[in-house]
Design goal:
Layout lengths: L23 H9 L4 H9 L1 E4 L2 E4 L10 E5 L22 H6 L3 H17 L4 E3 L22 H15 L5 E7 L12 E2 L3 H17 L5 E4 L3 E2 L2 E2 L4 H11 L5 E3 L6
Parallel strand pairs: 3-4, 4-5, 5-7, 6-8, 7-10
Antiparallel strand pairs: 1-2, 2-3, 8-9
Length: 256
């Protein structure tokens, strides 16, 4: 895999950011102090298209692996035609999965996704979709888990546990209020706090606390006048502080 760093590798005893006994914030602070500006930009920017679809290059000298991300959530999108001829299993739509009301089936569904993601060279799956069904004409409605926040959360937890039983990180998306396809890049979703919490945040709360999801993807749209991917209330007050999410947040691709 491509590595853009030219410096010599740091010795093992210098790579203190790999010490898992330290907190995530401590490790991140130690790592950032060693990264060049180019490495920081590469890590948060990513590449698309790339050999593995959505891709962040490794930093070999610092012991940081590549992120090889496969689109979901209905199956693995294999971008490399030399990997399994670019093929993967086409699974039933997640809206159909939610209609089973069966968390065991949801975990089996996620297990197959995680298995195929890992087998095709990916370590991040961009799913499940937790967008609450508000408009029946929402073009990506089939990718999500329906209109009920509790059902969506329960099925999402099973899905994530199945995916993450493999060396693959699941990604809950699209945070937040991505509920329509028309004008989704710039629409401003106006919402009161109670509705935000009880309907739209509830499934994310469940997958964070019960599913221990590793990543969350921000949405393109604005919420109450501020873009989701730079919305302090959503990202800091709600996701990190209220829900105690300790994974990482990525923007939707080309959202930043």
């Amino acid at each position: 895999m491509e590595n853009r760093s030219t410096d010599s590798p740091a010795s093992a005893h210098e790579q203190s950011w790999l010490n898992t006994s330290l907190s995530p914030n401590e490790r991140a602070t130690l790592l950032l102090a060693q990264m060049t500006l180019e490495e920081k930009v590469d890590m948060v920017h990513g590449e698309f298209p790339a050999p593995y679809g959505f891709y962040s290059a490794p930093i070999a000298r610092l012991g940081i692996p590549a992120l090889t991300m496969a689109d979901g959530p209905t199956g693995i999108r294999v971008s490399r035609q030399d990997v399994n001829e670019g093929k993967a299993t086409a699974l039933p739509a997640p809206i159909g999965l939610a209609a089973t009301w069966d968390v065991v089936v949801a975990e089996q569904y996620g297990n197959m996704l995680g298995s195929e993601a890992w087998a095709t060279g990916h370590n991040v799956l961009l799913g499940p979709g937790l967008d609450i069904a508000r408009l029946p004409v929402f073009g990506r409605l089939f990718e999500a888990l329906g209109e009920d926040p509790l059902l969506a959360g329960q099925i999402g937890v099973g899905y994530i546990q199945g995916v993450q039983s493999h060396p693959v990180i699941a990604t809950a998306k699209h945070y937040h209020l991505n509920a329509q396809e028309e004008n989704r890049f710039w629409v401003d979703a106006q919402i009161d706090e109670r509705t935000l919490q009880e309907i739209y945040t509830r499934p994310f709360e469940m997958v964070v606390k019960d599913g221990r999801v590793g990543a969350v993807m921000g949405a393109f749209n604005k919420v109450n006048g501020v873009y989701s991917c730079e919305n302090r209330h959503l990202l800091t007050d709600v996701l990190k502080q209220q829900l105690a999410f300790t994974g990482w947040v990525m923007s939707d691709f080309e959202a930043t």
